[in-house]
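Hi R.,

Here's the chain you asked about this morning:
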Amino acid sequence: MRLSHLKVLSEKELSKIHQASLRVLSEIGVVIHSEKSLTASKRPWCQGGYR
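And here is the predicted structure, written out as tokens:
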């Protein structure tokens, strides 16, 4: 989805997006054990971008 303008999301909307993301990750076999590990996986060196 592409928006032509910025939209501020509510905490409820962000929570729905977060839960849907976790559900998709689970469906493809990725297991997130904690919120801390989820945050760590967003770091560049965890994604192959750090050399």
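One quick note: The longest helix spans residues 11-27.

Cheers,
M.
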